[in-house]
Amino acid sequence: MMEKCSNNKSFIVFPLLFCFLLFPHLLLSLENDYIRGPVRELVTTTNHRSDSDPQQVHISLVGKDKIRVSWITEDKHTKSLVEYGTKSGKYSSKATGTHTMYQYFFYTSGRIHNTVIGPLEPSTTYFYRCGGSGPEFSFNTPPSKFPIEFAIVGDLGQTEWTQSTLKHVDSTNYDVLLLPGDLSYADSQQPLWDSFGRLVEPYANKRPWMVTQGNHEIEIFPIIYPHGFKAYNNRWPMPFEESGSTSNLYYSFDVVGSHIIMLGSYTDFDDKSEQYKWLQNDLDSVDRNRTPWVIALLHAPWYNTNEAHQGEGESMRQAMEKLLYNAHVDLVFAGHVHAYERFTRIYDNEANSCGPLYVTIGDGGNREGLALNFKNPRSPLSLYREPSFGHGRLQILNETHAHWSWHRNNDTNSFEADGVWIESLINSKACTKTQEKQTSHEEL
């Protein structure tokens, strides 16, 4: 039916109108002259390896030159051992980490292993094996200097659209993947966490995945599990302690002249909270001479012209926006809204050339479908918006310039539908002088 609506030139007016009545998302997508298909089926994966072999393997950055390898085994006695080296089948080094398990009602997880390996050389391919058996994996370490490229995708889920997005992300090289929340969409159905881990393993075992939580990671159940994030914290540990944070829900890390801040939309963030105090100290510690780029990610967007999730990030914006503005944060990425939207540089609801550039990228492929309705008339702050599945690329070329692009899923191909060149705020004398004046005024 979809092909007939879009391709059959013999259609007359009445059948065409009937087609739009059946599929209203076709009409809504005409703002960008692209016809987007409906939600696709949920994809579930099963384990075909032995109980002692690793599954759901993924890696993440730890500190300057280390990698955390995370995986799960059904066998409860497998060691948390990683053997690794720069030649396939020849492992010159090894490290032993820790393991844990968790229970959620009648579900008991497999043995969750976490082992940090390194120090590692930059721009190098390493081969590794988990637990002393099973398949060999490999990954590439990030470079030591510019350029560096980030793939950015939010609200990923595990549908056929997710598969399409991941294939497009993997079609060209990148160094690190950033995910601003909503990973598996398990929503307390714990086996779906395992299915998600197996789905993303071919991608997440060869490039570092750095994630923060979304609302679908909360999984609170009153009295029994009042604090939430049990599966998320056990399965996706991030380097929070290395950044001085006390919570896996917010942290930061450095990679190639870039300071990346992962904020928690679903933990306390007011000016008396631990997260606020941590963020204040974290931003103060950044040396912009050595780290010219500062980028923040969170789940619920602070700026949003889509009708979905209106105002849900407002209280966090009011609490923390000034901290980011005063620190010259260059870009802020969010998810939650299942569409793509790029704003101009903003501070306090007004265009401001010294504020961060805001991007919503909650369009990875979730099972809930796209947020099709944008508010009209369009806000002058919103420069490009489209309800389509896709992913983003941030190429930081040097200390002063980067290029951002958004790639729409055209099923078998990926199409760059939006792109913009960005200059680092710390390179803007106008912004740094304005900030110096503001700081002096506040001290008086």
Q: How would you describe the overall organization of this protein?
A:
The protein is α+β, with helices and mostly antiparallel strands. It folds into three domains: 31 residues, no CATH class; 86 residues, Immunoglobulin-like (Sandwich); 296 residues, Metallo-dependent phosphatases (Purple Acid Phosphatase, chain A, domain 2), CATH 3.60.21.10. Strands 14, 15, 16, 17, 18, 19, 20 and 21 form an eight-stranded mixed β-sheet that branches. A six-stranded mixed β-sheet has the order 13-12-11-22-23-24. Strands 1-2-8-5 form a four-stranded antiparallel β-sheet. β22 and β23 form a beta hairpin. α7 packs parallel to α8. The longest helix has 15 residues. The N terminus and C terminus are likely disordered. Its EC number is 3.1.3.2. Keywords: Glycoprotein, Hydrolase, Signal, Zinc.
Topology:
Blueprint: H1 2-7, H2 13-22, H3 24-28, E1 55-62, E2 66-73, E3 81-85, E4 93-96, E5 98-100, E6 103-104, E7 107-108, E8 111-117, E9 125-130, E10 137-140, E11 148-152, H4 160-170, E12 176-180, H5 191-204, E13 209-212, H6 230-235, E14 251-255, E15 258-262, H7 274-284, E16 293-297, H8 314-326, E17 331-334, E18 340-347, E19 350-351, E20 357-361, E21 382-386, E22 390-396, E23 401-410, E24 413-423, H9 429-443
Organism: Lupinus angustifolius (Narrow-leaved blue lupine)
EC number: 3.1.3.2
Catalytic activity: a phosphate monoester + H2O = an alcohol + phosphate
